[in-house]
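A reminder before we start the practical. When you read a complex entry, don't treat the lines as separate problems. The point of joint prediction is that each chain is placed relative to the others, so the output describes one connected object in space. Small molecules and nucleic acid strands, if listed, are placed in the same frame. In the example below there are two entries. Take a minute to note the order of the lines before looking further.
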Amino acid sequence: MSDTPNVVTGDLEAPTTEAPEELRDTASESAAARREIHDMWVAGTEEPAWMRSYTDEGAQEMLEADQDPAVDLHRGTVVEDDFIFEEPADDDELQILNMGPQHPSTHGVLRLHLELDGETIRRVKPIIGYLHTGMEKTAETLTYMQGSTNVTRMDYLSPMHMELAFSLAVESLLGVEIPERGQAIRVLLTELNRVSSHLVWAATQGTDLGAVSMLIYGLRDREYILEFFEKTTGLRMNHNFIRPGGVAADLPDGWEEDVERIIEKVSQGVAEYEELLNGNPIFQDRTIGVGVITPEECKALGASGPIARASGINWDIRKAFPYSGIDKYDFEVPTGKHGDVWDRYQVRIAEIWQSLGIVKQVLEKMPPGDYRTPDRKVTPPPRKRIDESMEALIHHFKLFTSGFKVPVGETYRAVESPRGELGMYIVSDGRERPWRMHARTPSFNHVQALPTMMTDSLVADIVATIASCDPVLGDVDR
Amino acid sequence: MAHRSGPSGFLLTTYESAVNWTRTRSMWAATFGLACCAIEMMATGAAHNDLARFGMEVFRASPRQADLMVVAGRVSQKMAPVLRQVYDQMSEPKWVISMGACASSGGMFNNYALVQGVDQVVPVDVYVPGCPPGPQSLLHGILMLQDKVMAGEIRR
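Here is the predicted structure of the whole assembly.
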């Protein structure tokens, strides 16, 4: 451990005031030895925000009995304040139920603190942070070249969208243009990813409502898309394929047949789901009028994507702020009316059809040309040039070891992920690493909207509502 | 395991190998999906890869009914006590598969938030590499665990 504080470098001024005395106060020497007080300063604020940060050496000794309760509170292993709430004065019959964080129907490690009046939920409190990975902090240590490796693991059901949002943000700071073929490949992959993500949603929504065969069907059809992804990018998930400057490689030979097969198989599959679920009285009973959210509440809580569209808001980033030339393709934005689980189901199924339509259009008019920007500041030289030219070899080496520098500035670029508006906010101080990166992730807002949807509904509707929000906890906690 | 003895169809074996055989062929996993690897774990259980071939398709939501914990994903500092509690609630005999780079070593996230390897919290029998490991990798890990159980002694 070094004694140097984690001071911001670059053009930004470091704060000069001292840390408050109570933060310097440490309970035990062993705890103090493992702990450093770092000063962190958020751009745009006048006062520096003092906080403690812990080194990973301390993290490794987690299982040691730590005598300092403040450490546990800080790490979140003790969540005392989550239980502080005002008891209703006249009702001591409320039962408190903890759901999660290892409950299979919470789609990951979401924990819900429920107050029940019999079968009715009177209050819901989502408790998050069980999958906090510190990715936004890790992003500050990775170059822009490596950055998409990190962000792709946030929302693991739509890795392509995470990579795309990151790449668009970096490209807008760099000011590079992506060739048409690169853009078309991006649209193809992100729309296929939207389908595969919605297929997992269909699988889990069906399973949570008792239609367990949906799990088999949904994951069966998703495999066709994942096979194509594996062929294209080398990995089934977490591809790191869409990078600042374009995409990592061209599409593989015979990709047209693969995509045609995907369209055929997934169309068959989705038609099957509709046949299975649409007229199913149990499915209708469990979804119609359940988990309702109004357009006003959507706007107040920042809900976007299928949830906002199911309540009637015609809002899609692809139409509002088109990216990667997606405005060249012809598609519609399906919307619902009632904002309940049933409408969200209908909207998502309609989105699968729309995305398949976009994929079909990309297939028909895939432009020829380069798949990444010709700007040699960002793109490594072609493999052939490396054998011929010493400069190209050096350039390649420098690009992959130290990365490229990005001009000073800040940017926010959003894409429409399967879950909603997914934005990347990047502040650059002119070096090859972001000074600060923040992801505006849709699942976070949707988990925030859960109490609005669930309050005064029945216990059995919890799983239907959570599944219809399709939260990915990696997206929430990051 | 089998020694055929005589025409009358007797099957002779040791008590140990019979018990181990039943343990491997009905090993029920606890649902402990954390992150990306959980999706691959689901894919392993689904139609294409069909975990049911190995008698393991029954994912139990209750740790009391589970023999195997597949730690699928990154374990944060906040999740580690929960993970340990679920492990403690499982009845003996029990095994742990650490699935993926994050669970095995912290993976690419060497930072303040993650436990750098789930073996600091629970004893691990098989580590499955990959980020995330594909269904084939997980199946390989499961087969290795079955071999390990078959070769082991009955102690609990």
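Discuss with your neighbour: Residues 82-127 of chain A form one domain. What might explain this?
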